[in-house]
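Retro notes (design track)

What went well: tokenization of the new backbones is finally stable.
What didn't: we kept losing track of which sequence belonged to which structure.
Fix going forward: every design gets posted as structure first, then sequence, in one message. First example under the new rule, 387 residues:
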């Protein structure tokens, strides 16, 4: 227990509840929800586990110091007092990034520079040597967060954002972030107990994340590197043990995961990415125009997709979203259909009443994840049958 420490998992707006649930299922302690983050307590093995196994986390930070800060000199002095030699050698390399929400400090790059000076000066004065700055592959990545007058210094255990799973070799014009895709699948409540479809699958991200959720495959197994692998206390044996224990929890999946796209190049890219993720046995993609298709069979279908918003792909919004509604209504009975869009005006043209709306962001675009329940037969008959 004495080896436990606090960590902070950063996430996207609207995913705090599902990240909290993920952490609870992984076995985290003292879980506390914030805005775009969830803090928790665990040991080093759990830090490895969180990086490998969390689907909706973007980064796992390990805070090492929190203090009040009143000026740039104050920041410099307090950063310099930290025992940096515990975390990196004088011959090692550093990268520092800062986020600032404060009236006193307004420029995050300048804050990062000031902190770098403090760390480097400490080493120079103590050893005559100094770590190098390496923005791409540093031995230690430091995160500085200033909220008004409170400064938190953390070690970034992930390195590159955790949405970079390692399976994507190809993307389309408007690709969806892997963490966003996983979160959408989870928010839609899909549990792997029915067929799943993405009728506008692009490069296959939603399909791949859905398959990993269905089979309980850890999302970050294919990453080339985590930042903690360069830390001085890196324990490769413990990491491999954690990896093995997560792999033992994978499960069978007995339904279909289907993707359509009307672009042949999108289908090629999706197939490449599915192969990279070793999920060919679970996912099938076809060159189809969704608006010319209909559902096969009577089984319940769970549908989730990311249609064009008219931001990066030019479309006739009224016609396109009208076609979504028509296709769902006439071609897809017995389907729960979810999609995300930042074009809130476009939802009016679908011509169906959503049963749920969830506010999210896709990058900087405020969006809605909406759900449409398509019944077999009339809704009225459905109600009478239940009674």
């Amino acid at each position: 227990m004495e080896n436990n420490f606090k960590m902070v998992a950063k996430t996207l707006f609207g995913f705090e509840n599902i990240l909290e649930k993920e952490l609870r299922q992984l076995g985290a302690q003292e879980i506390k929800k914030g805005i775009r983050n969830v803090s928790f307590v665990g040991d080093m093995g759990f830090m490895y586990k969180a990086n490998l196994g969390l689907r909706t986390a973007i980064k796992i930070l390990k805070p090492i110091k929190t203090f009040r800060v009143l000026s740039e000199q104050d920041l410099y002095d307090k950063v310099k007092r930290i025992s940096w030699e515990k975390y990196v050698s004088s011959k090692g390399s550093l990268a520092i990034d800062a986020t600032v929400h404060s009236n006193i400090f307004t420029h995050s790059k300048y804050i990062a520079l000031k902190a770098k000076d403090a760390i480097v000066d400490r080493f120079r004065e103590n050893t005559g040597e100094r770590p190098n700055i390496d923005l791409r592959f540093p031995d230690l990545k430091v995160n500085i967060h200033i909220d008004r007058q409170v400064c938190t210094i953390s070690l970034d255990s992930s390195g590159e954002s955790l949405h970079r799973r390692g399976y994507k070799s190809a993307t389309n014009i408007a690709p969806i972030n892997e963490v966003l895709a996983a979160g959408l699948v989870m928010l839609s409540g899909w549990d792997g107990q029915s067929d799943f479809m993405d009728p506008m699958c692009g490069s296959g991200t939603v399909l791949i994340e859905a398959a990993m959720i269905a089979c309980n495959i850890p999302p970050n197994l294919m990453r080339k590197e985590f930042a903690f692998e360069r830390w001085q206390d890196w324990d490769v044996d413990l990491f491999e043990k954690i990896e093995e224990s997560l792999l033992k929890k994978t499960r069978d999946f007995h339904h279909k995961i289907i993707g359509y796209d009307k672009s042949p190049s999108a289908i090629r890219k999706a197939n490449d990415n599915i192969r990279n993720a070793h999920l060919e046995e679970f996912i099938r993609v076809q060159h189809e125009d969704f608006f010319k298709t209909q559902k096969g069979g009577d089984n319940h279908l769970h549908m989730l997709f990311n249609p064009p918003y008219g931001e990066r792909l030019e479309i006739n919004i009224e016609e396109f979203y009208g076609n979504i509604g028509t296709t769902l209504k006439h071609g897809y009975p017995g389907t729960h259909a979810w999609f995300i869009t930042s074009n809130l005006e476009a939802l009016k043209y679908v011509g169906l009443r959503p049963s749920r709306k969830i506010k999210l962001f896709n990058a900087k675009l405020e969006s809605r994840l909406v759900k449409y329940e398509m019944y077999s037969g009339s809704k009225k008959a459905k109600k009478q049958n239940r009674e």
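Added context from the reviewer: The domain at 5-156 is CATH 3.30.2130.30 (VC0802-like).
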